[in-house]
Amino acid sequence: MARTAHADDFALSRVTPEARKPWFGIAVQRFGQVSALSQFLLGATLGYSMTFGDAFLAFLFGSIILEVIMCIVGFIGQKEGLNTALLARWTGFGEVGASLVGLAIGISLIGWFGIQSAISAQSLDVLMPGALPIWLWSLVFGLAVTAIVAFGFVGMQWLANITVPLFLILVGWSVISELTRHDLVELVTGPPPGPTMSVWAGTGIVAGGLIVGAIITGDMTRFNRSRADVVKQTVVGVSLGEFVIGLAGVLLAHAAATGDIVAIVTSSIGFVGLLIVLTGTLKINDWNLYSSTLGLVNFVSTAFGKNLNRVTTTIVLGVVGSVLAAVGILGQFTQFLIVLSVAFPPIAGIMVAEYFVVKRWRPELDATREQGTLPATAPRLVPATIVIWLVSALVGYFVTWGIPSLLSLFLSMALYIAAGKLGLVRGVGEAPTKLPEAAPAGSDA
């Protein structure tokens, strides 16, 4: 079973001690996740409406919010060695709730996978006009990423080791090429070229831009060896990604007096700018597909009692996301993803409140951790959790003041702790834990 679980990247089991990895390699992947093209665009958006100093504060405060959430959620994933959707069974959601978490993760991230594939397809069309139709470029790019993710964590580490340095070199080239035409002091001290935005609003944009990644951070930190490693890889990866890439976008927006960073890089350095777009989307899309696969594997395991193979599921989802990008349906998917952005934070709030405060199912995790197994049963349904999740998400969506994602996060924590104190957090029914089946000798799991 251990060999099968390892080959399947521990989709339905704990990560074993020998499979844990050094923090720096994971930090490279975290940096790759944060420093995507979307971060470049975020910096340009802030730079167009904020002074450099205010944008710096927005990145600072937003990064602190994200890193605190990532570390707390990451501690749970590191200690238990479990991915987000599987861990949710014993951190307040029960089997039914965890399956819904997995489904939400799968839908939202495969949506982003398709969106990123479509962006890259447009860039490839500009690079090689007329070579292939954009819909076919969408398929080519999406399937290329799918092939890499099918190799699991090892393949993704290989991709990050190549694309992260390349992306940094290309971004550096773009920044230097554009900024050498301007007075750096004037860019840092000058007013924003567009309508002004407050630091508080900018902080909300920074925090909201990576909130889904923060919620599923256990998918990454389950491979960490210690809490200290979680903190190091989070602080290094997130801080560098937010400040290096984000502030570069701020300066470019001030220099070109526009928030369209793609237009900036393509007009200033042409071919290299298009490579920035490609490498920027390539190195984030692998994690979109990877976490989407883990979520769907857990949903199908719970809902239908069938343990899907991670590689096969990766290929199927990669094809689905690529096809959606090719046919253009994802242009209508954006509003649904906005809804999911306020639905995700309560997941983290409930998990943290359960694991560290209420501890209704913490003893079961503690009792099985040393043996590297899972609790024999999980609650089938926790009604209070479903209600809290729904209420918190609706409040985050309809209340317009403050930062919606943080509002739904903290509200869910408060409601769950209150429900726990009142004895309302209890499971309805028990579900036996389904373990991965051992692969036959000589088979490829």
Task: Give a topology summary.
Elements: H1 2-7, H2 23-34, H3 37-49, H4 52-80, H5 84-87, H6 94-127, H7 134-149, H8 153-179, H9 184-189, H10 199-209, H11 211-215, H12 218-221, H13 227-256, H14 261-269, H15 271-304, H16 310-327, H17 334-343, H18 345-358, H19 362-369, E1 377-381, H20 383-398, H21 404-421, E2 428-432
Antiparallel strand pairs: 1-2
Helix pairs in contact: 2-8, 2-13, 3-10, 3-13, 4-10, 4-13, 4-18, 6-7, 6-15, 6-16, 7-15, 7-16, 8-13, 8-14, 8-15, 14-15, 15-16, 18-20, 18-21, 20-21
List keywords for this structure.
single chain, mainly alpha, disordered C terminus, two-stranded antiparallel ribbon, 445 residues, 2 strands
Explain briefly what this protein structure is.
The chain has 445 residues and is mostly helical.
| Mean pLDDT over all positions | 83
The proportion of residues forming helix, as a percent range, comes to: over 70%
Query: What distance separates the N and C termini?
Result: 10 Å
- Return the structural class: mainly alpha
List low-confidence stretches: 1-5, 437-445
The global form is: globular
Strand content: under 5%
Outline the structure in words.
- By secondary structure, the chain is mostly helical.
- The protein has helices at 2-7, 23-34, 37-49, 52-80, 84-87, 94-127, 134-149, 153-179, 184-189, 199-209, 211-215, 218-221, 227-256, 261-269, 271-304, 310-327, 334-343, 345-358, 362-369, 383-398, 404-421; strands at 377-381, 428-432.
- Helix 4 packs parallel to helix 10 and helix 7 packs across helix 15.
- Mean pLDDT is 83; it is low at 1-5 and 437-445.
